[in-house]
C-alpha cells in the first residue's frame, strides 16, 4: 500500500518535472554553475539591450517596446524551458513579421503577442509540435536567406539616413537607389564605421585560438580581453556611437538621426488592448483580428519554428534532449504573459543563444541575470538611449542577420538533390513579395512534391494470355490517383480491342478512400457498358470491407490470380455453350465477356 | 513521298480536330439531328432566360448581366466543346462566388471574367487539368451541399420581401429570423405559390412513365404535354407571376417587389474595365486585382470543377469520352470573350445540362438555338422583365439548388469510410463562413490525410542478436518522417542500454530528399557522440547517389544484412584485441562501438 502510494507520488513528480523542468536542475544547483551562469547572463544582457532597441525600430515600434519584449522570456524560460542555452526575446525575423502584421501600431503588436501566446499554448497542449515536420529544410533556408536580404536591405535606408521609403521590398530597393543622393553624410559615415567595427570584432573573435592551459597567463588574459570585447561588441559599438552623438549635442550641433525620447520606467501590467480607438471610430476585437489575418497563423508557427530549430541545434551540439511540446508551452506562456507588459511577439534568438552557449551557461538561470539587466536599463538608462544614433542600431541589425544568408545551400542542393531546389527557390523569391507568401508557397510546393508519387503511382500493366489485362498499382490507391488509373485502363482497352478481362491486383493497396471507391465503381460501369469485365484480386481485409460497405454494382473479387482466371475461364466456356444453344439470357447483366 | 505528306496531313487534321471538336460532328450532321437539337436548344433557352435573371440577382448585379452571360458560352462551346450535353452559362454556385468577389459591382465582375478566362486558358495550355484530381469527392459534396443551403437561404429574404439583410450567412440567418415580422405578405404568398408550382411540376415530370410506342396516341400526346410543361416550368411560372404583377399594375396598385427597369438591347462589345473611377479616386488594375484576391484562384478552379464534373457525369451516362483540357480551353475562351460583352464568369450548369440531355440533344449545335433565344429576349423582351416579381425568381433559384443538397452522403461515408467524414464536415461547415475557406480547408485536410502515411510510415524495428537494432521503414523516407524515425531510434537506444549497433534497412526507400539526408546525418552524429554505430543496408542506386553527394561524415553502407553484420563483428573483435593491447588509438573516429 505504502509502496503503491510512493510509486504514484514518484509518477506525479515525474509529470510535474516534465512540465516544470526547473525542478530537474534546481536541486543540483552549485556555486560553480552560478558563476558561469552569471557571466553568461551578463554577456547576453549586454547583447540584448542594443539589439532590443534595434529590433523595435525594425518592427516599426517605439524603441522601448524592444526592451519591454526582452525580459519576460528570460524569467518564464528559466522555469519552463528544456534547453539550457536558448534565450527568448525579440529577433530579426519576428520583428520583420511584426512590421508586416502590426501596421506600426503597438496595440496590434500587443494583441498579436497575446493571440500568438494563446495559439502556441493551445498547440502545445494539443501536441501539435509535429506540424513543424512539414516545413522542410529547403523552405527554412529559403525563408531565412530571403529574410536576411530583406532585413539587411531594410536597414540600408536607416544607415544612410533616408526618410519615407516604402515597406515593400521591391519598392524599397527601387526608392533607396533612386534617392541615394539624399544620403545624410554623418549617418552614413557613422553607420559604416559601426559596421566595420562590428565585422572586425567578429572576425577577431573567430580567429582567437582555443584557450589552452599550457600558455602563459599574460597570453590567456589578453585572449580573454579580446574575447570579451568581441562578445559584447554590440553594446560597445552602440555606446561609442552614443558618446560621439552626445559630444556633438554638447557642442550644439547634431549631424546624426537619433533615437530620441524614450519613456522611462517599467511597462505597466495591464490587459492587452482588445479594441482600439482611432480618429475614425473604434475598431472592435473582430476587426483587429481580421486585419491581422494570416499573421495569426504565421507568427506563432514561425516563433515555434525558430525556437525549436535553435533548441535542437544546440541540444545536438551540447548533447542533451529537448521536448518540442514543452518548448511550445514555454514560448506560449512567454507571449501570453508578455502581452500584459506590452511586449511584441518573441521567440528563440539564434545569435544570443550562441553567445549564451559560448560563455558556458550551465542552466536557464542565466536568463534571470539577463532579465534583471534589461529591467535595470529600462529603469535607469532610457534617458541615455536618446543619444543613440539610428545608424548604429542599423549596423547592429545588419551584422546580426548577415550570417542568416546562406548562398551555399543553392550549390549544395544542386549537387545532392536538384528537385529540392524547387521549394527553396519558390520560398526564396516569394518571400521578397511578402514573407508569409514565401513560406506558404514553399510548404505547398514541398507538399505537392510529396503528393506526386501518390497522385501518379507506378502501375504495373501486363497482358496475360492475350485477352486479359493485369494491372497492379505499386503503392496505395488514394483519390488523386484514381483518374490516372482509369485513364491507364481506358487507353489500354481502347488500343487493344481483343482484351476482354481486366484483373486489378490490389495486393499493395493497404488503404483506400471513398473517392477512389467511387472512381472504381464508375470504371466498373463504364467497362460494363463496353462489355468488358473487371475483377479485383488480393484485396486486404480493411480494403475489402470498404468495397463491400460501398455496395458496388457488379463487384467481383478473388483471393488471387489463379482463382480469378479460373472463374473467368469458366464463365467464358459457360457463355460459349450458351451461344451454341442459341440463348443469350444466361449472360450476367454485368456482361462478363464481349 | 506522297504517302508521307498524306500521313502528315492526316496527323495535322487530327490535331486540329482535337482542338476544334466541331470538325468531328459537323461533317456528319443530319436533318434528324437538327430536329432534336432544335427542340433541345429551345427548351434549354426557355430555362436559361428566367434562371439568368435570377442568378444575376443572386450575384448582386443588375438582371441584364445574367442574360449578357448566357449566350457567349452557347456559341463558343458549339465550336470547342467535347461533350454534346454540357451547356455553359451562369450557375448558382458561380453567382454565389461572384457575389463574394465582385462586391456587387459589374466592373469587378467583368474583370473577374476576363482574368478567370485567361487563367483557364493558361491552365488548359499548360495541361493543368490534373489539379482537379486533388479535389476529393467529400470536398465536392461538402461544398455543393453547403452552397445549396447558403444560396437557398439567401433567397428566403427575397421570397419574403425583406430588405437590407447582410451577406454573411450566419448574420443572414440571424437577421432574417429577427425581422421575419417585416415580411411583405404579397411577396411571400406569390413566392410560396411559385415554389409549390415548381415543386409540383418537377414531381409530375419524375412520375411520367417512360414513353411507350404501344400506348394510344392520346396518352402519348398528353404525356408529351405534361413533359413539356414540366420541362419549361421555370419560364411558365415566371411568366405567370409577371402576368399577375402586370394585372395589379394596370389596376393601379402594386403589392410585389418587381425586377424594375432593365436596359434594352444587346451589350456593346468593349474592352473589360482595367481600372475603375470611384468617388474616392481611380482604382488601378493592381488595386482591383488585389481586392479580388483569392477569388482569382477560386473562381477559375470552381468553374473548371463544375464543368468537368458535369461533362464527366453525362459522358459516363451517355457513353462517350471528354477531354478535360479541351473543356478548360472551351470555358477559358468563353470567359475571355464573354468579358468583352459584360458577362460575369460562367461554367457548366448541371440543371440545364440535364434538361439538354433529357430532350435528346445530339450535338453541341443545340447551344446555337439557346444563344439566339437569349439574344432575342435581350433585344425585345427587356421591357417585359420590368413586371417579373423578385419572389418568383427566388423560387426558381430555390428549386434549382435544392437537389444539390445531399444529406445521404453523411450516412454513406459513415457506412463506407468514416475518415472521409473529416474533409466532408470541414468543407461543409467552413463554407458557411466563406465559401473559399471551406474549399481551401477541405483540400488541405484531405491533403493532410494523404500525407499522414508519409509523415508516420510504418517502421519495422527488430532486435537482432541482443546488441543490434534492425530498423526498416515500410515506404519512402521523406522529410516529414525523418524526425519520427530519429525519435524511434532514440527511444529504443535509450531504453535498451546494451544496444550498440543500428542497422537501417532502406530496401523499400525508393527516393529520399535533402531534409531527410540531413536528418540522418544529424542522427549519425548524435549516435557517434553516444558511441553507437549506424550503418545503412539495401540502398537503391539513386538513394545511394544522394547520400554520397551529400558527403555524410561516418557514412557506412553495405549491400545487405549479412555483409553489414560481418563487418560489424570484425570491428568488434578488432576493438577487443586493441583493448587487450591497452591501446585505444585504433578506434575509428566515428566510434563504431561503445
Short description:
Chains A, B: Keywords: Membrane, Transmembrane, Transmembrane helix. 2 copies of one chain form a homodimer. Chain A has 594 residues and is mainly alpha-helical.
Structure characterization notes:
- Chains A, B: It is a multi-pass membrane protein.
- Chains A, B: GO terms for molecular function: secondary active sulfate transmembrane transporter activity.
- The structure is a homodimer of 594-residue chains.
- Chain A is mainly alpha-helical.
- In chain A, 64% of the residues lie in helices and 6% in strands.
- Chain A contains 26 helices and nine strands.
- A five-stranded mixed sheet of chain A has the order 5-6-7-8-9.
- In chain A, helix 7 packs across helix 14 and helix 10 (185-207) crosses helix 11.
- The radius of gyration of chain A is 33 Å and the shape is elongated.
- At the A-B interface, helix 20, helix 22, helix 23, helix 24 and helix 25 of A face helix 20, helix 22, helix 23, helix 24 and helix 25 of B.
Largest sheet of chain A: 5 strands, mixed
The proportion of residues forming helix of chain A, as a percent range, comes to 55-70%
The whole-angstrom Rg of chain A is: 33 Å
| Assembly category | homodimer
Query: Strand order across the biggest sheet of chain A?
Result: 5-6-7-8-9
Distance between the termini of chain A: 78 Å
Structural class label of chain A: mainly alpha
> Which range does the strand content of chain A fall in?
5-15%
**Total strands of chain A:** 9
Largest interface: A-B, 50 and 50 residues
The dominant shape of chain A is elongated
Low-confidence stretches of chain A: 578-594
Number of helices of chain A: 26
The overall pLDDT average of chain A reads: 86
